[in-house]
Amino acid sequence: METYIIGITGASGSAYALRISDALLESGAALRVVATDTGRRVLEYETGVSLERWAGERPNAVLEDNADLFSPLASGSRRFTGMVVAPCSMSTLGRLACGVTTDLLTRAADVMLKQRRPLLLVPRETPLTSIHLQNMLTLSQCGATILPAMPAFYHRPRTVDDLVSFVAGRALDCLGVENHLYQRWREEP
Ligand SMILES: Cc1cc2nc3c(=O)[nH]c(=O)nc-3n(C[C@H](O)[C@H](O)[C@H](O)COP(=O)(O)O)c2cc1C
């Protein structure tokens, strides 16, 4: 079974994490979910969802302790299919760009980079400083895919849900996971 790691940090846009996670579960994959303290708090604030409860209702989703560096996620010897950090804060982005692993989430992402496995980062901040941009360039050069939370409008979204699904669909596209989360350009509905 394909197993993905989902990292949730304290940037705005927690809805992206939930949509990407549910779509991966629907594709038949299993998940290991790890969130920073601020990530959990922002998720509850923005969506009203408790991560414990969310994971408890999904048999194929395991919620990890972000302080537990003895987790399998911390070792390159364990082969996970890929990792998505969504939303990715500028703070986590900065730590990753410097190779500083202060918790399980950053260690798991660092492992994906060193093992050359798929790492998808969904940063959210505006405007961006040169530091943010340089960190993104560094991580892109290390093999990470930078997929900014930038929904498009050519599919004529009508709801916030449409915007969230567009970004989630593009994330799954990057992981090579078939999905119908958004209306593709000039494709019949
Ligand atoms: C409601 C809320 C929204 C935030 N939105 C963002 C954001 O969009 N991007 C960002 O980089 N930081 C944002 N922050 C700040 C981060 O949460 C903060 O930098 C935190 O230290 C990130 O830590 P983490 O990367 O360990 O989760 C937000 C904070 C709060 C409380």
Automatic annotation (TrEMBL):
SUPFAM superfamilies with a match to the protein in the record: Homo-oligomeric flavin-containing Cys decarboxylases, HFCD
E.C. number(s) listed in UniProt: 2.5.1.129
Keywords: Flavoprotein, FMN, Prenyltransferase, Transferase
Residue numbers binding dimethylallyl phosphate: 154, 170
Domain Flavoprotein residues, every copy: 4-173
Catalytic activity field: dimethylallyl phosphate + FMNH2 = prenylated FMNH2 + phosphate
Amino-acid positions noted as binding FMN in the UniProt annotation, renumbered to this chain: 10-12, 36, 89-92, 124
A GO MF label: flavin prenyltransferase activity
Claim: Transport is one of the keywords in the record: no
Cross-referenced InterPro entries: Flavin_trans-like, Flavoprotein, UbiX-like
The UniProt record lists the keyword Flavoprotein: yes
Class of the enzyme per the UniProt entry, highest EC level: transferase
Job description of the protein: Flavin prenyltransferase that catalyzes the synthesis of the prenylated FMN cofactor (prenyl-FMN) for 4-hydroxy-3-polyprenylbenzoic acid decarboxylase UbiD. The prenyltransferase is metal-independent and links a dimethylallyl moiety from dimethylallyl monophosphate (DMAP) to the flavin N5 and C6 atoms of FMN.
Family the entry assigns: Belongs to the UbiX/PAD1 family.
Protein name: Flavin prenyltransferase UbiX
Species in which this protein is naturally found: Anaerotruncus massiliensis (ex Liu et al. 2021)
